[in-house]
Input
Amino acid sequence: MTSDHRSERVRPATRDAGASAAPDTRLPTTVLSGFLGAGKTTLVNQLLRSAGSARTAIIVNDMSEINIDADLVRSGAAGLSATDETLVELTNGCICCTLREDLLQEVHRLAVLGRFDRLLIESTGISEPLPVAATFEYCDETFASLADVARLDAMVTVVDAVNLTADYDDRALLRDRGQVRDDTDERTIVELLVDQIEFADIIVLNKITTAGAERTAAARRIIRALNPDARLIETDHGAVVPGQILDTGLFSAARARSHPLWFKELNGAADHVPETEEYGISSFCYRARAPFDWQRVRHVLGGGAPCLFDGVLRAKGHFWIAEHPSSVMTFSLAGRLNEIAVGGRWWAAMPRSDWPADGEARARILRHWSADVGDRRQELVFIGTQAMNRDAICAALDRCIAAPAPKARPVAREHLVR
Output
């Protein structure tokens, strides 16, 4: 770590294959996400003060009717002027849902003006980055696609080193803190944090001096357990070198989907092992073909086995049960929050006439095919610290395997939740 408390691990800035050698004139766009109080606005002001002669447009999103963050950007000595910088406020809603159309129109308008060298989008603290990124591929009746005139340069998530460990271990809903998109918003704090961290190309771990070495190390482990690929910058007061954040070319939609460590483990990627070991993180995938007994696996995955998941930071996967063999069951764990749900149907339970016609898609199905059970399988990824007990977890799951006979009693589909 350098004396100014910034450290960085950089993965190569690769662009999508097949990109043209001609200059890309589309407006490069950086999206900033991060939970409330992480320091997004401070980072925006730091970037603007260091922008030099670059002409920057800024879109600031706030859930309230009064855009406090926009006012802070204006008053943050950023030097906004009518000629070189433009600030657009999107208020009283969230750009990942209710204001998505507004975001699309504003980005398009700023891009076609041709006056700006870059665009910064500061999302509201409860915004998920994936829908914002998807906006760039959206087509409507007015123009073919936002991607024709603007390009995503990087998805950046700002993380509060002081509060991440406590928030990650919290079962509270966003509404418990008075922060919801609408009356139907039932998301938890940890679900939002996971979404913001897993989808990032760059993660700014902020407030590290206030957090201290121990909390910073714990936050770093959580980040690397969720996203081992992201460029990690550790700092105070949002102090970064602009080149670490801007004009990096790091965003790739395909690569963004594969950032999460659980995805890598589930798909057999091994190149993440050295880096995760450096941060004290390990991962494994439990695999089996025989079905689980519903009552037993619900007890184990639902938290009924005391201390079994000590040290587990993230778990995700799918499984099948003897009582309802057509259903894909899904499992997700982050912090102390775990969820079991019905995720769809196995292809083995579908007539071949309903299978995808695409040859590559069919090949993917058949890669996991077994003559006995079709594509049904248990695949559960666990990611954790050195305190995670792989042997105990595997043994507990082995005990959930259903006996081959007698035939298990069916369970109604609507009862397949905790």
User: Anything to note?
Assistant: The longest helix spans residues 208-226.
